[in-house]
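Design a sequence for this backbone.
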């Protein structure tokens, strides 16, 4: 029977610890998922509504501007208001799958 050497014991111990570190962690409870604000629609839904004629690009831009103005005092995120440019773009010719969706 082969003799166990100090080197073999240390190598085996290190390998065992390394293997244990690779095991998957036990997950805790899943975090709560965020819910969308009432009336929120994603870009795909807005694009579909514009394409179907349910709404217009200008109406969606006006809604986005109203939402931005409503929270601007809290988040202070608008450096330069380009609302007039957005309105002009919304009134132009729409081309592309997300044409008219405020961004």
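Sequence:
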């Amino acid at each position: 029977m082969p003799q166990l050497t100090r080197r073999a014991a240390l190598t085996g111990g290190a390998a065992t610890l390394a293997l244990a570190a690779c095991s998957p962690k036990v997950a805790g409870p899943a975090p709560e998922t965020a819910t969308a604000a009432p009336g929120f629609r994603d870009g795909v839904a807005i694009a579909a509504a514009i394409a179907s004629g349910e709404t217009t690009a200008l109406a969606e831009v006006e809604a986005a501007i109203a939402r931005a103005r409503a929270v601007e005092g809290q988040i202070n995120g608008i450096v330069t208001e380009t609302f007039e440019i957005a309105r002009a773009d919304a009134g132009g010719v729409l081309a592309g799958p997300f044409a008219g969706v405020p961004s």
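Residues 43-90 form one domain.
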